Amino acid sequence: MASAVRHAFTPHSHDSADKTDAALESSARGLRVLGVSFSVLVVAAAMQAVIVAMSGSVALLGDSLHNVADALTAVPLAIAFSVGRRHASRRFTYGYGRAEDLAGIVIVLIIAISGGLAGYAAVVRLLDPQGVRALGWVAAAAIVGFVANEWVARFRIKVGREIGSAALVADGLHARADGFTSLAVLIGAAATALGLPIADPIVGLLITVAILYVLRDAAREIYRRLMDAVDPGLIDQAEQIIAGTDGVLGIGSVRLRWIGHALRAEVDIVVGHDLSLVEAHAVAVETEHRLMHALPRLRAATVHADPDSPDGTDHHAPLVSHRQAA
């Protein structure tokens, strides 16, 4: 009987097989996105490399290198998606989903390096202007680079948001930054054709600033994931769902955190002190059930049921000193 009572009023979790399958499928989607985008960017970079050899365009060379770097960011993210599919262990009890956040750090660093190289190339070109041959082909290659990067960016950002992967969104933002670099090449080629070669490095500097803004957004998103931040709207939604559950008299703390592209919840609820063990347990289970149906990326929830205290009894009195110390 004592063990049954402890079960009713201590945290418990019922993992859903359907949610686990959804998590694996979202990782599989992420891997497919990376495979497709990697192929698109490699083809675009190869086409640009041929035209670099024809034209001698330093700006296009930089754009081609950026596309190669963007394609390579798929490698750490693909590793993270693969690692994240491993089951939890006694050491990694929450699983390996946070590998995506580590990959996100690598991606942010690559964006920073990309922006630094773009700025350096622009300054060098500003100090030492150079002529460019085959401007028509350079412009065409720049358009190819922009279209490829923008398509990849939209694809990665869309799927990243759908599966809740901040790292994949950051990778999409990186692709968009490289698309801006391609536009700089295009504008520079047009200006060169009009007899204004100095416009190319000036535009390159402006694009570097744009890349820095992309870097800021990507870094902020990854930072928030590392700090276990969530959209406050999710907390509001969870509280509404909990409050609407039959048998819930009050809500204690509601905590959500991202682990990779999956959410986990920890919830404290208040139930009637006169409920039986089975009835209290049923309220906790129903709360978890409703949460997992209403929050699409929620993979698991731990619900802690506390009895109400009409006589003023503090059921957590032994824990007060420990909680104050924390």
Automatic annotation (TrEMBL):
Spell out where the chain crosses the membrane.
33-58, 64-81, 102-122, 134-152, 173-192, 198-215
Where is the Cation efflux protein cytoplasmic domain positioned along the sequence? 234-307
Q: Where is the composition biased (Basic and acidic residues)?
A: 12-21
Q: Please indicate if the UniProt record lists Transmembrane helix as a keyword.
A: yes
Record GO terms (molecular function):
cadmium ion transmembrane transporter activity; ferrous iron transmembrane transporter activity; zinc efflux antiporter activity
* Chain residue ranges for the region called Disordered: 1-21, 303-326
Keyword Acyltransferase recorded: no
One GO term of the biological process aspect: intracellular zinc ion homeostasis
Kindly state which keywords UniProt assigns to this record, in alphabetical order. Answer: Membrane, Transmembrane, Transmembrane helix, Transport
**Domain (Cation efflux protein transmembrane) ranges:** 36-227
Q: Name one Pfam family in it.
A: Cation_efflux
Gene Ontology CC: one annotated term: plasma membrane
What subcellular compartments does it reside in? Answer: Membrane
UniProt xrefs under InterPro entries: Cation_efflux, Cation_efflux_CTD, Cation_efflux_CTD_sf, Cation_efflux_TM, Cation_efflux_TMD_sf, CDF_Transporter
Fetch the NCBIfam families from UniProt. CDF
> What is the designated name of this protein?
Cation efflux system protein
The record lists the lineage as:
Bacteria, Bacillati, Actinomycetota, Actinomycetes, Streptosporangiales
